[in-house]
Write a structure and sequence with these properties.
Helix content is 50%, strand content 16%. It has 394 residues and is of the alpha/beta class.
């Protein structure tokens, strides 16, 4: 299913294919990658929260709803109208999703290429799966979620004080709410809600807990847990020392919420979005994260990420090339320590370059894909370094 937007912030036009299992957004800073990811998150949340059961109420012949012939007649007649109405409604809540002032997105246009997805949209959740967002602010959320929660309590106190003063107009209350309650984009707000409810959420164990344990064992070299007061904590391997999140390395802060998700929240077919998974990671760990993401995709998850990391991209390309049927591939896998679950089918990958005010589909084949803006800068740096060295020291 295609998702397209126009006039979304700096993006004059962009489109991505949500049917792909691994979506990679690349490009210079301030080119709209995060905006597009926020929009995808918002519209997926919107359609899930506005249950398809509501749409079924529009159809009289509910007993025969699953009859395919009747279904097609119903969907052909009603689906375009219903979908158009839903998109209009989502556009109305878009400003709240981004936490911007009224009118900020008045020119935005949204398009879903849905003809092929009508049946899926109505009869399953696959078109709009459960979705989780790990924003670039996840480090601050992991460290300061309790302090931010205190700020919310202060908001309640301020509203109560307003009531006690018997201010007759409601305008003052709304002014307070508008000023204080909705200060962050929805992905950040939702991440904060999870961070504030860890003590309760940890009571559930996911069937994909082993993916979180894989991150702990291969990258973090320690265990993530939740303290008695509901805060994240970390225990390095081989020790009994339990560290509060603010005392841990930046690598731990960056990956803690992702580990918790897989250990306690993850369900098959979830859609996860990670803004800059390479945050604060040394190149060796960036490569491990690339391999981790491929394993997650191979387990049936849909993953979208934005990245500036050449190490991530090159490792993705390694895992694509090793998917080859050539006998030499097995020897290379053994030599460099790769296993079957690390390999990536290039047909599952959608890679996009964001440049100027658009995004461009990158060609992905059995050798992987290239990101021109990154390759160009690496070449410039290499040429500059060589000229400086050979001019001054050779």
């Amino acid at each position: 299913m295609k998702f397209g937007v126009k006039n979304l912030g700096v993006l004059k036009e962009a489109e991505i294919d949500l049917a792909k299992d691994l979506l990679i957004l690349c490009g210079p800073n301030n080119t709209g990658k995060t905006y597009l990811a926020y929009a995808v998150y918002g519209i997926c949340k919107f359609f899930r929260e506005n249950s398809r059961e509501k749409y079924r109420e529009n159809f009289r012949d509910r007993e025969n709803f699953r009859d395919r012939k009747i279904f097609r007649k119903i969907s052909e007649r009603h689906f375009p109208r219903l979908l158009k109405g839903a998109i209009i409604l989502w556009q109305e809540v878009l400003e709240s999703d981004f936490s911007v002032k009224s009118g900020f997105f008045k020119e935005v246009k949204v398009n879903l290429g849905t003809e092929e997805g009508i049946e899926i949209f109505f009869l399953s959740n696959q078109a709009f799966p459960e979705i989780y967002f790990f924003p670039a602010e996840r480090i601050a959320i992991n460290v300061f979620s309790k302090e931010l929660s205190i700020r919310r309590n202060e908001l309640v106190d301020e509203l109560l004080e307003t009531k006690d003063k018997k201010i007759k107009t409601q305008a003052s209350v709304f002014d307070i709410l508008k000023r204080r309650a909705n200060r962050y984009p929805r992905p950040v707000r939702d991440s904060l809600r999870i961070a504030e409810d860890l003590e309760f959420l940890q009571k559930t164990k996911s069937n994909f807990a082993y993916l979180g344990e894989m991150i702990e064992n291969e990258i973090l070299k320690g265990k993530i847990s939740v303290s008695e007061n509901g805060a994240m904590q970390y225990t390095p391997d081989g020790t009994k020392q339990v560290l509060e999140t603010h005392l841990t390395a930046s690598m731990v802060k960056s990956l803690t919420s992702i580990v918790f998700y897989f250990k306690h929240l993850a369900k098959k077919n979830d859609f996860i979005i990670i803004d800059e998974p390479e945050l604060n990671l040394h190149p060796d760990n960036q490569r491990l994260v690339a391999k981790m993401l491929v394993r997650i995709v191979n387990e049936g998850f849909k993953v979208m990420l934005s990245t500036h990391s050449d190490y991530l991209i090159r490792e993705f390309n390694n895992l694509i090339m090793l998917k080859s049927e050539k006998p030499e591939a097995k020897k290379l896998m053994k030599k460099y320590g790769y296993v079957e679950k690390d390999l990536l089918d290039f047909n599952k990958v959608g890679a996009y370059l964001f440049k100027e005010d658009k995004n461009f589909l990158l060609e992905v084949d059995e050798t992987g894909f290239a990101v021109g803006t990154i390759d160009e800068e690496i070449n410039k740096l290499n040429q500059t370094s060589q000229e400086i060295y050979f001019t001054l020291y050779d």
